[in-house]
Design a protein that fits this description.
single chain; six-stranded mixed sheet; Zinc metalloendopeptidase; signal; alpha/beta
């Protein structure tokens, strides 16, 4: 009989599927120390708040919890407590003026972290900011996909790879064992998953690889026939993007438990997850993005 926590995850995913056309197949969550809670403190236009909460529900459902999560040390400003299991990642999210239309679309990253007894470096706090001058011009599907994408960076996708020993900047190869297994079995590829090296600072070394800035198919497809061009965590966002088993496996490689489920947001036209800058401190990797011209 499933545990209370497992039932709760199934209900949250189902609610999200009914509410925002995010579809998921349900499997039991691998054993983890505690269920993940993504707590979003949102400020801005009230009409956008539901999209942030939907993204939080999606990621906490898909990632499930941590393989370990017992925090033994933390950064100075972290809200996590030492000698306790990390349960909540707190994200400050806002839609407000940044630099006007056509400039920075948004910026996101973890701001504080904790180290668990297994040696994983885990995000404990983060922030997401989107420019109101650009954000309102996106379609609802684009906004939902953008928030999902940026929230993944807060949780560690691309931002905690190097710190967790699964990526060397400039190598173009993600070396985590779980993602590599999916790359070879689900996508039928040899070697290790390819990481984007073009697109400029912040797009490079933090996303799955695409060809021709996302304008052509890669020819690399999963078991459902979906081309990597449409994967949510590539450097360019295309219509009908999806979260692949590869992305979920990469989260296992940096300390999460993860479910075996695939969520499918419905974004609109192609966008570039381009970056204007990256903070120097390793514990404050802030990714800034703007719309492609």
């Amino acid at each position: 009989m499933p545990s209370e926590r497992q039932i709760g995850l199934r209900v949250r995913l189902l609610k999200n599927a009914l509410g925002l056309a995010v579809f998921a197949s349900f499997f039991f969550v691998p054993s983890a120390s505690a269920a993940l809670v993504v707590e979003v403190d949102y400020s801005g236009v009230a009409a956008y708040e539901a999209a942030f909460q939907s993204a939080a529900n999606t990621w906490q459902g898909l990632l499930g919890g941590y393989q370990d999560g017992l925090i033994v040390s933390r950064s100075f400003g972290s809200t996590a407590l030492e000698n306790q299991v990390l349960e909540t990642v707190r994200i400050q999210a806002s839609v407000a003026s940044i630099d006007g239309a056509g400039g920075t679309l948004g910026q996101a990253g973890f701001t504080e972290f904790g180290l668990d007894t297994s040696g994983y470096k885990l995000a404990t706090d983060g922030r997401m900011q989107f420019d109101s001058a650009d954000f309102g011009g996106l379609t609802p599907g684009q906004r939902e996909a953008l928030i999902l994408h940026e929230m993944a960076h807060v949780l560690g996708f691309g931002t905690l790879w190097t710190d967790n020993g699964v990526y060397v900047n400039g190598s173009g190869e993600f070396t985590g064992v779980n993602a590599t297994a999916v790359w070879q079995t689900e996508f039928g590829q040899s070697g290790t998953p390819d990481v984007e090296l073009s697109g400029g600072v912040g797009t490079a070394n933090g996303h799955w690889n695409e060809f021709d800035t996302g304008s052509n198919f890669t020819g690399i497809t999963d078991g459902l026939g979906r081309d990597m061009t449409f994967e949510l965590m590539t450097g360019w966002l295309n219509p009908n993007s999806f979260i692949s088993e590869l992305t979920l496996a990469s989260f296992r490689d940096i300390g999460f438990a993860t479910t075996n489920a695939t969520a499918v947001p419905e974004p609109g036209s192609t966008l570039l997850w381009s970056v204007l800058g990256l903070a120097a401190e390793s514990r404050r990797r802030l990714l800034k993005r703007r719309l492609a011209s």
